[in-house]
Amino acid sequence: MSDKYNKKRIGIWGFGCVGQGLYDVLQHNRHTALEVASICVKHPEKKRTLPASMFTFNPQQLLEDASIDLLTELISDPEEAYLLVKQALLAGKSVISANKKMIAQHLPELIELQQKYGGRLLYEAAVGGSIPILRTLEAYYGNEPLQEVCGILNGSSNYILSKLHEEEISYQDALQEAQELGFAETDPRLDVGGHDALHKICIIAAHGFGALVDPAKVVRLGIEHINTNDVKLAQALGTRIKLVATARLTASGKLAVQVLPAFVKPTSELYFVEAEFNGVLLEAKFAGTQFLKGRGAGSHPTGSAVWADVSAALGGYKYNYAKIKQQHLSIDTEGLITIYLRTALEGELPKLPWLEVTSFGVNSKVIQLVGTLRYTDLLLHQRDLEKAGAFIVEVPQSLDSNDFIRASKLQELEIVN
User: Fold this and answer.
1) Which CATH superfamily includes the segment(s) 3-122?
2) Is the Cα dihedral 188, 192, 193, 195 positive or negative?
3) DSSP annotation string for 7-21
4) How far, in Å, CA of 134 to CA of 282, rounded?
5) How far apart, in whole angstroms, are the C-alpha atoms of residue 393 and residue 341?
6) Is residue 126 a contact partner of residue 72, using CB atoms and an 8 Å limit?
7) Which of 125, 222, 361, 373 could form a disulfide with 194 if both were Cys (CB 3.0 to 4.6 A apart)?
């Protein structure tokens, strides 16, 4: 039988960075007998690389086309994405999405719609770029208890931090370079503020631990207030600052979820994840530690992840959500966390209920603290800390206040010399 009778047809919402990447990947896989039925875009006047006949400006056209076997949602607006994906699932259709915010905020409902109407939703590209983290969690750890999943999940922030550690340049210069290379958006707040990583770790928590986490109830602090002195302090401590997203099983049997800059030592694989790469560490109860690394941003790496989901969905693959069916973990908000805090706005700093705190390196312009407080208190004061311009880094158990005092003195000697 001729291939034209066996071809599967897909519809694509969105033709930005990821949509273009997916199309390019499809062109290199023509042997799969898969064709693009239509691509829905928003702006008719915009010049594009494909013939006008390939495009439509009505998103409903794809939903109503009975010849389309699979839909891919690759638009930036999370609310519009939610409405389209919801309609597809209500109709029992299969759909691929790369919209991490939409998925993280609506995952309980999206799971219910799949179960009720028989459609399927895959979203590997929404989490780790080219890293197959969700497929790994589903296929290899669906029935094995995990102790922790942590990682660098935002390539833009990691690129900026890498530049700060490698070169003595300012945060603004590093950000500008990331934007010029296409690693950071014109408005980078979702990346450098930790929002992007937050949505990704919430999705990971569902597949890795069976916990449906509300992103609004997770501590999320980014790197936008970092400066060169913070970087020099990290180096004096023998560490690097990384933006780390973590889902960790606590001693109380609850799940702690957070996104924070962290002092990472060379004993961790994350220390060596540089530039726009992502890296994920998995700690399993029986299998031990696994590490996955790959490009976390870019048209073709993300488009490749979408293509992998397209192939899997057409082959009948779907998420089992085994952990969600097995257990119902509650979120730990009473645990303790030790942080480094530096701000130049001491007068505007909220009064934090420290359990213990040490000041060091303090002068008339800057205050530096290392202290421990409850997770719930950090979450409560998170917005005020951001407004005060405070830069906050999680401190590992292997470091204490004396280490920071010594590192600060080394900095002072370096400045004098």
Assistant:
1) NAD(P)-binding Rossmann-like Domain (3.40.50.720)
2) positive
3) -EEEEEE--SHHHHH
4) 12
5) 7
6) no
7) 222
Architecture of domain 336-416: 2-Layer Sandwich (3.30)
CA-to-CA dists, residue 324 to 6, 83, 138, angstroms = 36, 24, 11
Q: In angstroms, how far apart are the furthest CA atoms of the chain?
A: 81
Helix, strand or coil, per DSSP, at residue 176: helix
Per-position pLDDT tens, the chain of length 417: 344 557 899 999 999 989 999 999 999 887 778 999 999 999 988 888 899 999 999 999 999 999 999 999 999 999 999 999 999 999 999 999 999 999 999 999 999 999 999 999 999 999 988 899 999 999 999 989 999 999 999 999 999 999 999 998 999 999 999 888 878 777 899 999 999 999 999 999 999 999 999 999 999 999 999 999 999 999 999 999 999 999 999 988 999 999 999 999 999 999 999 999 999 999 999 999 999 999 877 788 889 999 999 999 999 999 999 999 887 788 898 899 999 999 986 668 899 999 999 999 777 788 999 999 999 999 999 999 999 999 999 999 999 999 999 998 887 655 433
**Dihedral sign for Cα atoms in the order 124, 130, 135, 136:** negative
Residue 56 CB-density burial (10 A; 0-12 exposed, 13-18 middle, 19+ buried):
middle
Which pair of tokens denotes residue 254? 């609850």
Query: How far apart are alpha carbons 361 and 363 in whole angstroms?
Result: 7
| Residue 321 contacts residue 211 (beta carbons within 8 Å) | no
Query: What backbone torsions phi and psi does residue 68 show, to the nearest 5 degrees?
Result: -80, 125
Contact between 13 and 84 under an 8 Å Cβ cutoff? The reply is yes
**Domain layout of the chain by residue ranges:** 3-122, 135-295, 336-416
Measured from the Cβ of residue 151, the count of other Cβ atoms closer than 10 Å reads 31
CA distances from 263 to 161, 234, 365 (A): 12, 7, 24
Tokens of 108: 């309980």
Q: Which residues are catalytic?
A: 200
* Gap between the Cα atoms of 301 and 22, Å rounded: 9
CATH architecture observed for domain 135-295: 2-Layer Sandwich (3.30)
